[in-house]
Amino acid sequence: MLTLIRKDYIAFGHLLFFQLLLTLGMMSFGLFIDKRGTMTFIALILYPLIVPTLLLINDKRYFELCNAMPNSRRIFVFSKYVGGFAASFAIILIGMSYGYLVTRYIITEGVNFSPVFGLRGFSFILIPVVLINSITFPIFFKFSREKGSIALFVLFGMILIGLLVGVVFVEKGIQAANMQYSEQEVFPMLMQRLAKYIDRIGVNQFLFQLFAGTAGVLGISVMLSIWGFSNKDIGGE
Amino acid sequence: MNIIEINHLCKKFKYFSLQDVSLQLPQGEIMGLIGANGAGKTTLIKIIMGLYLYDQGEVSVLGMDPIKDGNVLRNDIGFVFDDPRYYDFHLKKISRIIAPFYSNWDDELFHDYLGKFELSDRMKFKKLSRGMKLKFALAIALSHKAKLLVLDEPTSGLDPIFRIELLKILREVKRDGACSILFSSHITDDVERIADCITYIKNGRIIFSGIKEDVLSRFLLIQGKEKSIPVEIASVMISGQVMPEYFEALLPREVAASKGWNVDMKPSLEQIMLYHEMRGE
Predict the structure, then answer these.
(1) For the packed helices A73-105 and A2-11, what is the interaxial angle rounded to 10 degrees?
(2) Domains defined for chain B, CATH in brackets
(3) Is the Cβ of A15 closer than 8 Å to some Cβ of chain B?
(4) Does residue A235 belong to the interface with chain B, where contact is any CB pair within 8 Å?
(5) What are A172-204's pLDDT values in tens digits?
(6) Do the Cβ atoms of B251 and B238 come closer than 8 Å?
(7) Do the Cβ atoms of B58 and B7 come closer than 8 Å?
(8) For the segment B119-129, what is each residue's pLDDT rounded down to a tens digit?
(9) A237 in a domain, yes or no?
(10) How high is the ipTM of this complex?
């Protein structure tokens, strides 16, 4: 597996470097120019988030070569998960360190990075990375690039619509409760409910539940990827 | 011992299928797999490499299953695909990526082959011509002491001089019996030149498979000055064609013998394949 991961890092090192530069660049825009947290944190999550899938999609042309060498399909699938997430996490770590150092020693007003810089913040940023790639990986292991892109587009569209409809439905449903909220908040009822839930169980417990759920999704993703990849003909993509 | 043993293999696609394919490649031999485009040669090769699944039958390569034992098995297989696809780097960097996968990789041997094939490790893969890409793929395949070489159209796109050079290299590689070779080609001259065994596949079915001399001696060519093929020949021939000056037909040897016809013209492999392809048209 390490040989496969090493191969990916050598073959696509330029992509990883570019993603790192993009992350740091957009974070810099948020820190130095925008001076608000939104851009900084979006960059820190968004650009590393796509790294695992980016590595997978770019290697699809060479699946025939890789699987004609001494590898098993199962180990090949694992290598994409491990290598992709490791690269993603490394970029997040570098980004977080950069953000902390800048806000600590250079621009001390504006974005407050201290709450994020730590194990808890790092863990929280990992969750969307793992969740999103857990959805994309099985699709791209089973289908070709073109079909996979279409399937992904449809799937994410359905998830987004489902989420929006679901959240609005829940929001309306609990609006009957006489809660005070600020009009600047998005889906204020739901956010208040969530905040109350976190207060009740504690942040650590909440994070643990998120992790457990994410780990569950990841486990299902790995099984689906192995199943999909083991039951297809490789080549010709 | 058979290096490749395939029994009653079936594989279905939407518009094509391999049906009841059986063949054996003895250790230390070279097998030429011939057939027209779309006959199933590449499909068969990809099944042997563990890249394609199959629906029925048994496939054993070096005594192992190409799907279940692929990670162990492919350490001893060198391959060249019809369309070699490597990462877009200098050849040296590509070899540094590939080498760790093989326990018997020999870097000195690799550079020897690069020299023989007139390639420099500073060349970029995507800038190579098709023939040069094939040569590079061959250098990789020959550089880790493989017990089996699987080559899909290895001479296609190569100049005639290098084709002969390559065939010579393949003969040398198999000389001590440590390496067996399966190569597919529609250039029958190449197959006839170096193969010990020949398998002919047409529309997903094996038409014949066996030792080259046996296979070639199974058929005879008959010619005559008539403007059309006589009925008694047409009823038993594989197929034939009428030329401006004469007709020609391919017959099974035993049929000619049973009819008492005095025919001794031996067809080339190309003629055997041609007339089989024409059959049924």
Answers:
(1) 60
(2) 2-214 (3.40.50.300), 219-278 (no CATH)
(3) no
(4) yes
(5) 666 655 555 555 555 667 777 788 888 888 888
(6) yes
(7) yes
(8) 998 999 999 99
(9) no
(10) 0.88
